[in-house]
Design goal:
Blueprint: H1 10-26, H2 35-56, H3 63-88, H4 95-100, E1 120-127, E2 130-136, E3 152-159, E4 171-176, E5 180-184, E6 194-202, E7 215-218
Antiparallel strand pairs: 1-2, 2-5, 3-4, 3-6, 6-7
Helix pairs in contact: 1-2, 2-3
């Protein structure tokens, strides 16, 4: 089934309308509806069945009966579309029940896994105590963008001769959705000081991946050495 019952050939639409009406009338609350909604649809379905029968019967088929059939389908479709949204959004309704009504099942959701790889960090420039860094995927050095499934990154910095092995020693520079980030160190950081950076990607569910290999440079006032 590629479409909901209210789209397709007239004969299929009419048969689908009858099936839909029968099921929701018998148990409206099972599908997240109330009896009044089922009753209203049943009236539209009854009109449709009569109009369709008149439109296909050679003895009664005229431009007027065909137009009435088309209008009855349009009226039923408008109501069915509204009811289908209610039913599909009702958590207790299963995909099997949706199919039994002639409605499309809900699409399967494939969860996005936590990022498997760490970002690569490039030092772009140093201006005073501000260092511009670029994050990119290891296999994406040309585009230097975020990998598929990555929502953003968290950047960390450290001031010192060697990158710390203790996670708590790093300073969290915040969350970013950008791949080019300016990290400004306080004025208390002496010119020429060695500074380090690491980061990790995270997905839309805020699940993070592994941390990047630390890279370093020196703030203005000393030699700049990227590692």
């Amino acid at each position: 089934m590629a479409r909901n019952f209210y789209f397709g050939k007239d004969a299929d639409i009419v048969a689908g309308s009858a099936n839909f009406s029968t099921l929701i009338t018998a148990n409206p609350t099972t599908f997240g509806l109330v009896a009044a909604q089922a009753t209203a649809f049943a009236a539209l379905n009854t009109t449709l069945q009569s109009a369709y029968a008149a439109a296909i019967n050679p003895s009664t088929r005229t431009p007027v009966t065909v137009a009435a059939k088309d209008q009855a389908i349009a009226n039923m479709r408008g109501n069915a579309t509204m009811l289908a949204k209610i039913i599909s959004s009702t958590a207790s309704v299963t995909n099997a029940q949706l199919v039994s009504l002639g409605l499309l099942p809900r699409p399967a959701r494939t969860p996005v896994p936590a990022p498997a790889d760490a970002p690569v960090i490039d030092i772009v420039s140093v201006s005073g105590n501000t260092v511009k860094i670029r994050l990119h995927a290891a296999d994406d050095s040309t585009k230097r963008g975020k990998p598929d499934g990555v929502d953003g990154a968290v950047v960390f910095s450290f001031v010192g001769a060697s990158a710390p092995t203790d996670e708590s020693a790093w300073t969290n520079e915040g969350i970013t959705s950008k791949t080019v980030v300016d990290v400004a160190f306080p004025s208390t950081v002496a010119g020429g000081s060695k500074v380090w950076f690491t980061a990790f990607w995270f997905n839309a569910r805020k699940q993070n991946g592994p941390a990047a290999n630390p890279v370093s440079t020196n703030v203005a006032g000393g030699s700049a050495m990227a590692a």
